[in-house]
Amino acid sequence: MVETFLPGLYTVEQHDKGPSIWLEEFGEIHTPFSNQKYTIFMDSLTKFLQQENRDICNELGFNYKLNTLFYGKQGTGKTSVMNYAAKHLIEKHGALVFMIHGWSNLHVTVEMARAARKIQDNLIIYMIDEFDQLVRDKKEEAYLKSFLDGVLSINNSLVFATTNYLDHIPNTIKERPSRFRLLLEIEAIDSPEIVKRTIKTILDKTKKEIFTAAEIDAMSASLASKGVTIDEIKNYITDKIMNLSIGITAEPKIGFVKEDYRLPDKKQEPEFDSALEKFIGSLVNAPGTAKVYVSEIPLNDSDFAFADEEEEEGD
């Protein structure tokens, strides 16, 4: 058993011979962009960290805790916000951060954190990515509720959780303030300045000039007008590096000679043919895809040769 827990990010796993625990490194972290939801989160953390507030709650017999559930579409930066806050609290407040990966290590992690609380008073943080995975097992729901606000919850603690599917979280959990005080939607970025800052933060890691200043300005305005996630920005940059044209540009280039996709001879059953046309039609101008051109010309192997540089320049 660990005698003293040093501030840091921990993973705990249960094995046949007992639990094992080790320090982890944080994954990719971006400085969160400033918006109203992030301001609410940081203001709440600031108030939580005030010793006077904790003392009053403890005098009243309450466990002093603050649980936050971040939700929103994939790639908006929920995990990055969570990581950023946890790393800051480790560095500035000596926090012990425990990563929960699902039911595989929930029980043993909770027990390890409770053991840590018995020997030291550091701020304890639980981080749970894809929280919706935990609520799928109805047999364990009572344990989960006890962990959030019952006998298994601990004093001076935070829970940071994320989900792409808020509708998968039972109302008895997400609508109970004692279980999640804050439900914050992390939305796509619609500010050109924030998109520009995000792009520059990513590009600062390399000395190679991938975009000119003018290209960054134009790209930021275009992406922000549609609302863009951090993942989409990364994909856009990757496409540029690889000289691909299948990103989220307004007018992607064609990557194949002649048409991108052509229907075979109409010899299929009518139902299949109709379904295929409907599927191909759904791809036309779809976000994140190249344009699709449909023709009734029979397919030949040569039709799928990649365009050479001269043909690409002529598009």
Outline the structure in words.
The chain has 315 residues and is of the alpha/beta class. It has three domains: 8-185, 3-Layer(aba) Sandwich (Rossmann fold), CATH 3.40.50.300; 188-242, no CATH class; 251-315, no CATH class. It has helices spanning 36-48, 51-59, 78-93, 103-119, 141-149, 171-174, 192-203, 213-226, 230-241, 270-283, 309-314, and strands at residues 8-15, 18-24, 65-71, 96-100, 124-128, 157-163, 182-185. A seven-stranded mixed sheet has the order 2-1-4-5-6-3-7.
Descriptive tags:
single chain; 11 helices; about 40% helix; alpha/beta; Rossmann fold; disordered C terminus; about 325 residues
3D shape = elongated
Strand-and-helix sequence, N→C?
EEHHEHEHEHEHEHHHHH
Our Rg estimate from Cα atoms comes to: 25 Å
CATH topology of the largest domain: Rossmann fold
Content-based structural category: alpha/beta
Low-pLDDT windows of residues: 245-268, 283-315
Number of helical regions = 11
Per CATH, the superfamily of the largest domain is P-loop containing nucleotide triphosphate hydrolases
Proportion of residues in extended strands: 5-15%
What's the architecture of the largest domain, going by CATH?
3-Layer(aba) Sandwich
How do the strands line up in the largest sheet?
A: 2-1-4-5-6-3-7
Q: Helicity level, as a percent range?
A: 40-55%
Q: Can you summarize the main beta sheet?
A: 7 strands, mixed
Count of strand segments: 7
Tell me the span between the first and last alpha carbons. Answer: 66 Å
